[in-house]
Request: fold
Amino acid sequence: MWGGPKEVLPKEIAVPITVMRCEVCGTNHTRPHQEQDFVFKKLKSFCPKCNAETEMVVVSIHVEEKKQKT
Ligand SMILES: [Zn+2]
Reply:
């Protein structure tokens, strides 16, 4: 079922963030969470410190809630 009138976008936008650590230099990097991400998953990603694509491991996934200030 799609587009039911009960579905309303929440005012608070939850933005999941994936934190991953470069296995080469040990630096943590963040990027917007992707559906297939999970903690301890290994993936290849570009490390700006190594200036190369390296193997990284996801160390945490958390949600940052952007709340509108009144
Ligand atoms: Zn690195």
